[in-house]
Amino acid sequence: MPVNLKKIKSDLVIPPKIGEIVQGAVINRGKSSVFLDLGPKGIGIIFGKEFFDAKSTLKELNAGDKITAKVVDLETENGYRELSLMGASQEMAWKELIEAKENEEIVESKVKSANRGGLICQVKGMDGFLPASQLLPEHYPKVEDGDPLKIAGELQKIVGQDIKVRIFDLNPAENKLILSEKATKKEKIAEKMMSYKQGDEVKGEISGVTSFGAFLSFDEGLEGLIPGSEIPEEKALKIGQKVKAKITEIANNRIYLSLK
Length: 260
Known about the structure:
It is built from six helices and 15 strands. By secondary structure, the chain is an alpha+beta fold.
């Protein structure tokens, strides 16, 4: 016997707000709709595009099951609160991401794709961008001459892997999520950097060659930039080459080196 939804409505209804996250119990379902009892907030409905966007999840629900949804319209033509399951998931994911950034948490991410600028990673169901410059040395694309196509090819090898990251920057309104792998070891790196000073000589391996200079990896996790002006004209650097360099400056958490 079908449920009479109108009889369920309470005499005392407290209207929710657009964008509010609510919880309700499934009380009825049709071929393309699901009805939820929201208690004093009324009866909610997930239908139309919102239903088909979350169809795989909704089809598993039974009467009495509780789910969380987002209010997208206060009243349909039949007097129900229009809800979005996907909208609630995104809202809650952004909330978790904001908390992760505030607490400087290290979170797991899955690399979905790569381009010449970096990686697209999924964190808590949301897509974020991990710039190549924010990769740890072991993942940084070791490409001579900074060829964009070769960089993209090297980054492609990481697709499918799980990478630990920290939230570098985010803006839910702009759907922007920037990640950093380097930041997961920032405390350890900062501690190591404090043991060095201007004038110290270091020995390491060339980890990247670009149009503006070269990167030198040393001391298990540290990386310094050798500007082009600090590389002798007769010296042709190659990825993997072992060299000695002198620290010319340590500023803004960066190490600058010279081969001269």
